[in-house]
Amino acid sequence: MAYVALYRKWRPTGFDSLVGQEQVSRTLAQAIRTGRVGHAYLFSGPRGTGKTSTAKILAKALNCDRGPTPEPCNECESCRRINDGTSMDVLEIDAASNRGIDEIRGLRETVKFAPAAGRWKVYIIDEVHMLTTEAFNALLKTLEEPPAQVVFILATTEIHKVPATIQSRCQRYDFKRIAARDIEARLRHVCDASGIAAEDAALSLIAREAAGGMRDALSSLDQCAALAEDGVTEPLVRDVLGLIGREGLEKLFAAIAGHDAHTALTQTAEILNEGKDIRRLVAELIAELRAVMVYQAAGPLPDAPFDVPADALARETALVTPEAIPSMIARLHEVLTELRWTTEPRIALETALLTLCRAPMSEAAPTASAAGSPVAADESRLKALEARVAQLSAELAARPVATAAPAPAPTEPAPPPAPAGHAASPASPLPKTPAKPRRTTARKAATADVADAAVTPEGTAIWQKLLDELQQDEEYHIFHKFLSKAHFGGMTDKVFRVLFDSEFIQGRVERDDSRQAIEERLARLAGSPRRLICETTATASTLPRRKKAAASEPPPAPASEEPPVKPLPLSAEGKREEAILTGLFGGHLEPVPEESAAAPENKTPPTPAPATAAPAKPPGPDDVPFPGDDDFPDDGGIPFPDDDDAPPPEEE
Predict the structure, then answer these.
(1) Residue 351: inside a domain
(2) What is the CATH number of the domain that holds 201?
(3) What is the pTM of this model?
(4) Is the separation of the CB atoms in 21 and 49 below 8 Å?
């Protein structure tokens, strides 16, 4: 008869022989006793923890001749066929090789047939997470409402890949990793029953290296038993599993703790020359450090799964301080990450060993993190960042004092020159022309802030960003046209000053709709709300004033100047054009005789106006009607946004 591997020969045959999964075995056994067997089960957990074995035990318990019973006899025809894998009523499907929708369609066609010999028809789908999305969708309806005598058992090692719609239709059982002491006890039972001589230390080492998987432990024992001549010993297990010997590991640890880089590199070379894996060496060195750390913190623990003898632990504990071990473990974990992608794994390991050898570990060493460790590097970077933040905070706090230039004291705007024949008295100033109440109120409310406004690089940058945003916004492109003809006049934490060459554009920008749109952007760009202050360059307090004309007498007229000409009456269209031109360019229009351009030479010139007649008063910004698209000759017409609140143009 052919040899049968230990993990197959010693597969559990009943719930009582299932090791390490008591919560699963008790629940299923009670469900069989009470007749509450579900139609679908989902077993999830690490490899080698008993998922498939439990599925077969459940199938035998349902179809045993003495059952349904939680203790199948393993002697009847049905139990023997299930153990041999030849039962017609228990179908084991490998989803890794039968993962398509066609296989699931075939399953749906056969599931409707009654069991051949037993009471239940059991479908065991192993590695169910390998099914495709289409196959899962095809299985949904059948899994939810199978025939009365059908039970589905799904097994997987990656439960996160199973759709939630599948999980919700099954009773889920999570298989945990088996404890090392339970694996060791099972290995001792197998060795005694199979006639294999094995040391307890060897079985303990196999159990720890199995990482909670009974199948892996039995496979390792089978491999060691095949090589052993006088029994399974600990050195034999280390050699078969590729583990680092105790002697080499202790020498390497002592060299690192003693800052002996030469010995550490030499010992590493000897270990690697024996064919040991670099990842295995790093992992065992981390386990050694972990054992020392726990021993320093809590002393010898009876149940601690240490692969380090007590005398070795006592020696190694005296070599390093408790503060140094966490940084050493962190550095070795970084090496494990680097080994996944580096093309030179030995260089990565040797670099880490040199770093550990240079780190302070003796009892006289400071308690801070080891030099060159990631913790020390992070602390140094944090201190540098804190110093930089403090420096920037000081600069920001001193910026208003260091960069803000004092603005000149606000002065009254110079009055316009008096008309001919109306000289002002030196004792009494000329009366001011009253402005619109809205504009006067806004200026009075911001007088104190405007006096402190200064042109700073920060304000200039905000001004440029404002122009760029308005230019990119098609809805408010007209505001960019207006502001592009203006100048930045200064900024404080409350106001933003803009100077215009034209009173008309100033008045248009000061309208409520324009002001609101611009102030919203200023608040976002500057970080706080600011009021928009619009002034003309002629009256701005930060610009040089025009010199006052002599108050005692009007400016003398040139000797060759002809007497003023009486203005001719203008039509409504002419007045509209005059208002637009004076609003854009300032000043006023000089009257020109009607025949000056095309009159023949023999015509008599018109009678000049009296010398005392005052020139026509130029229209103010509030007397200018709303312009149209063709009233801006510089760019061929500017489109205006819709404004239902704009006042209608005045008519004569």
Answers:
(1) yes
(2) 1.10.8.60
(3) 0.53
(4) yes
Task: Identify the domain boundary among 504, 536, 568.
Answer: 536
Q: 259 and 220: one domain?
A: no
3-class secondary-structure state, position 198: strand
DSSP code at position 454: B
Tens of pLDDT, residues 322-363:
888 999 999 999 999 999 888 999 999 999 999 998 876 543
* Strand ranges across the sheet with 486-491: 486-491, 495-500, 531-536
Domain extent for 354: 245-372
Same-domain pairing of 441 and 459: yes
Cα atoms found within 13 Å of the Cα of residue 479, Cβ hemisphere only: 27
**Residue 612: both structure tokens together:** 């005392």
Q: How far apart, in whole angstroms, are the C-alpha atoms of residue 13 and residue 75?
A: 11
Q: How far apart are CA 266 and CA 402, in angstroms?
A: 63
SS3 assignment, position 498: strand
Residues 45 and 119 in one domain: yes
Q: CA 464 to CA 271: how far, in whole Å?
A: 68
SS3 call for 514:
helix
Q: pLDDT tens across 439-486, in order?
A: 444 445 445 566 667 788 888 888 888 888 887 777 777 777 778 778
Q: Is residue 59 part of a domain?
A: yes
In a domain, 555, yes or no: no
